Amino acid sequence: MANELDPIDRRILTVLQENADLANKTLADKVGLSPSACLRRVAQLKMIGAIQKIVAIVDPDCMERHLGAVVTVKFERHGPQFRQNFFDQLEREEAVSQCYMVAGEVGCVLILNVVDMEEYTQLTDRLFHADENVAAFTTHMVMSKLK
After folding, report:
1. Fewer C-beta neighbours within 10 Å, C or N terminus of the chain?
2. Strand-pair partners of 141
3. Region of poorest pLDDT, from 30-44, 50-64, 128-142
4. Cα–chain-centroid distance for residue 120?
5. CATH number for the segment(s) 60-141
6. Does the pTM of the predicted model rise above 0.70?
7. Residues of the chain with CATH 3.30.70.920
8. Contacting residues for 70 by C-beta, under 8 A, at least 6 apart
9. Which residues of the chain are in CATH 1.10.10.10 domains?
10. Cβ-count burial of 42 within 10 angstroms (0-12 exposed, 13-18 middle, 19+ buried)?
């Protein structure tokens, strides 16, 4: 897919990563296209999967989820068949905003936004302590968001 993108497509993607809520005319002006050409390009970028989804990044405080955490998870056994229950559970957890499968010492990194420590403790019981495939987890509490 990356080979299919020209410099204008890349500029469109860069601008949309900063603000996907721009009016088409404003986006067209920023990337140097006519509005109709810009609209066609954005539609094409969606069709080929370069733009996967348009979402709103919501301030967790507005959802009364004031406590952020980054959690690394080590698994006993690797392979999708061993982790599927864990992934299914993640889908149901409102506090889990992001999940990354990673290579290295840990297998998974989670970004959490919880209401308070009580919710965090309950979540760790459900996700980590109750899953026999979770060997260990480490939590890093977010002090501030820089980027």
Report:
1. C
2. 69
3. 50-64
4. 19
5. 3.30.70.920
6. yes
7. 60-141
8. 109, 110, 111, 112, 139, 140, 142
9. 2-47
10. buried
